[in-house]
Design goal:
mainly alpha, 10 helices, 0% strand, globular
Length: 239
Amino acid sequence: MIALLQYIHRCFMRSYRYGAPSFIYIAILMLIYSSGPNPVMGSYAFSSSILFVAAAAIGCLVMDVEAANQEMATMLHARSLVRLSGAKLLYAWIFASSLGLFAVIYPAVLGRLERFPSWEELGMASLYHISLAGLGVSLAGWFTVKLFESRFYAVLILCTWLALAFGAGGIGNALPEGWSWMTYLLPPLQLTLHALTFYDELGTGAKWLPVGATVVYAAVSATLLLWTLRRRRLDYPGE
């Protein structure tokens, strides 16, 4: 698996596809923290929400980083499409998580926050960012060209799904009575944003709930994706 991850890393670096989402994410952080002081956990709520989108973009780019013929050769070496796709999801999560850790450490070290975060706040903020990175990647994996021949429709549906995640609270309020349970089918992004925004007012269980919910949702999404790729007969559409 390590050799496979190293190969995916080389492919991703050589493709330069990492440039746009990474540069835009870091540029937004630098712009936001160009002036201060900023609230501690409120700032992390903003950076984690942007990371969720950046991770989805990174997930899409990593899943389709290889041309069809090259991927078929890689699959033979990996011995299965599920193993190769799982490695791509894992690599994308690691890459996006590194951006998340940068978002946690950067403002604290440079003194852009109203005070230096406590070790608990740094640890929980890191977990929130890492879990949302995994959530974004697990969702993006569904919109690979292996399942959607049209990149345009894949990106359009992914953007719609991400927008629904951001608007889950409003959607729940707008649904008729008895139908609000449907919002539980949406990615639990709002749980994390709520926990970060009202962090000081929450108990221990309420602080850990978003991490658990996000990890479970991401794990289920990734597992179903790999099962779908295994079951579906793929034709590897050309570039």
